[in-house]
Amino acid sequence: TNVQGSTARGKLTLEENMSSVEEIPERRLVIDAEVVMDAEVVMDAENDKEQLIADKKIDLEEKDNNYDQCRKRTQQLFTEHEATLKMTLKLMLFLAYNGYFIAAMVYHMKHKQPLDFCNGFGFLVILTVLAYITGLYYFIVKRYFGEKIHKICLKPLEDAFQNAMKFWFVKWIILLVGTVLLMAFLIVDSKNDRIRLVSVAGLLVTVTAGFLISTHPTKVRMRPISWSIALQIIFALLVLRWDIGRSILKCLGDKMTKFLNFTDSGTKFVFGYLSDGKMAPGVTAEAVLAFSSFPVVLFVCFCTQILYYYGILQIITQKIGWVMQCTLGTGQVESFAQAANIFMGNLESVIVVSPYLRFMTTSELHCLIAGGFASVSGSIMGTYIKLGVSPSHLIASSIMSAPAVLGLSKVVYPETEKPKINDEIISESKIEAINALDAGIQGLQMGTNIITAIISNSIAFIASVAFLNSILSWMAGLVGHGDITLQVILGNMLSPIVWLMGVNEKDCLKVGLLLGTKIIVNELVGYKELGQMMRGNAISVRSGIIATYALCGFSNISQLGIMMSGLTTLVPERRE
C-alpha cells in the first residue's frame, strides 16, 4: 500500500512538473514580446529624438543662412552707400554739435556769466573757431585751391628764396641787417639802464663757447643760430610785452597741467596718501616722489600710444616740425620735441617722439636730450608758483628756451649725417596693435620699464652725490672748512657766468650758489632758496628775475640719470 501511495504521489508530482515545463516557453514568449516592444519604443524615441535634432539643425542652418544673407546684404548696402552714410553721420554730428553750441550760448547769455576764453563757454568758442578754421582749410581750401595756391604763390616765393640763399653774400647781408636792427632795438630799449647790455655779451660768450667745444666747428651753420636768437627775442616780446600773448601761453600751460594732473585720480586710488601726502583731515605729509610724480609717465605713455595709433601725433609732428624747419632748418621730430618741452617734462617729450628715436641722427639725439634739460614741465610749474616764483617768468623761460636750445645744440653738435626722418616716415610710422586699447596697454608696458629704470638711476646718482659731498666735507673739515660741497665749488665757478647773464655784481656769488644747488641737487631746492632770498631782500629784483630764468630747467645730475635710463629703455640699440 505504501509503495502504491508513493507511486501515485510521484506520478502527480511528475505531471505537475511537466505542466510547469510546458508553461515556461509561453512565459518566455510573453517576456520576449514585452522586451521587443520596449526596445521598439526606445528605438522609436531615439529616432524621434534624432529627427528632432536633425530638424533643429536644419532650422539653425536655415537661420544661419538667412543671417549670413542678411549680413552680406547689409555689408553690400554699406559698401554701395558708404560715402552717403559717412556724409550723413558727419552731418548729424555737425548739427548735434552746433545745437549744443547754441544751447551753451543761450545758457551763457541768460545767466550773464563773464566770458573767459580759457575756461567755460569762452574756451568752447575758441575750440569752435579753431574747428571751423581747420575744417574750412582741409575740406575746402586745401582740397579745391591748395594746389593752385602752392603753384601760383608759395612755390615761386620758395624758389626765389632758395635761389637767393645760394649766394653767400645774401646770407651775410641778412645776418648783418638783422644784427644791426637787434642792436638798435636793444640800445633804445635799455637807454635807462645800460647794465642790461651786459646780457648781450653773455649771449656772444655762450655762442663762442659752443664753437670752442663743438664736435665739428667747420660744419656749423649760421641759420639755426641767427633764427634761434631772433625767435627767442620774438617770443620774449610776445610773452613779456604783450598781455594777450602771455595769457594765451598761460592758458595752454594750465590746460596741459590740468591734463597731466588727471593722473592724481589713479595714483590716489592705488597708493592712497602716499601719492598726495593727505594722511587724514588736517594731517598732511610730503608725498612720496615715486607715487606722486612718476605715475605721470604711465599716463603719458598710455595716451601717446593711442594718439599714435590713430595717427594724430603724426600730423602734429609734421605741422610743428614744418614751421621750425622753415625757420631754423632743424628736423621735424627734434623741433616737435622742443615744442612739447614747453609744457611737458624731458622724459615725457622723449616718449612723445619715441617711434622715431631709432631713425634720428646723433646730432638730432643730442638736440633732443639738450632740450629736455633746458625747460621744466607744466605739471611741476604749480609747485614752483607755490614757492613764490612768477608764473609769467616761468612760462616765458620755457617758451624762449625752445628755439635757444635748438640753435645752441646745432653749434655744439652740428649735423654731419643725412637725416633719415621725413614726411613719409612720419606719416607711415604706426604702432602694431590690434586696436586702440592694445596700443594703450603697450604704452603702459613701456612706461613701467621706464619708471623702473628711473627709480634705480635716481637712487644711484643721488647716493653718489651724497658720498662725494661727504668726502669733500671730511677733507675740508681737516683744514677748518667743513662746509665745502660740490654745490659750493660749482657755485663759485659759475659766478663769472652769472655776471655775464646780467646779474648785479654784488649778487653774483649768491646766484652762482643757487645754480650750483640746481645742478647738483635739483631746481626745486634752488627755487626754495631763491624765494627765501627774495622775501628777505637778500638780492635785487633784477638778479632775482634772472635767477628765475636760469633755474628754470631740468639740468641736474639726477635728471641726467633719468634721461639716460629712459632713452636706453626706449632705444637700447642707440646706447652708445
UniProtKB/TrEMBL annotation:
Protein keywords: Cell membrane, Membrane, Transmembrane, Transmembrane helix
Membrane topology: Multi-pass membrane protein
Transmembrane segments: 91-109, 121-141, 169-188, 194-213, 225-242, 287-310, 450-472, 484-503
Entry's Gene Ontology cellular component terms: plasma membrane
Signal peptide: none
Gene Ontology MF term list: nucleoside:sodium symporter activity
Subcellular location: Cell membrane
Domain Concentrative nucleoside transporter C-terminal span(s) in chain numbering: 393-575
Domain Concentrative nucleoside transporter N-terminal residue range list: 201-274
UniProt xrefs under Pfam families: Gate, Nucleos_tra2_C, Nucleos_tra2_N
Keyword GTP-binding in annotation: no
Domain Nucleoside transporter/FeoB GTPase Gate: 291-388
Location (main, coarse): membrane
PANTHER family named among the record's database cross-references: SODIUM/NUCLEOSIDE COTRANSPORTER, SOLUTE CARRIER FAMILY 28 MEMBER 3
Family: Belongs to the concentrative nucleoside transporter (CNT) (TC 2.A.41) family.
This protein's name: Sodium/nucleoside cotransporter
Originating organism: Argulus foliaceus
Lineage, top ranks: Eukaryota, Metazoa, Ecdysozoa, Arthropoda, Crustacea
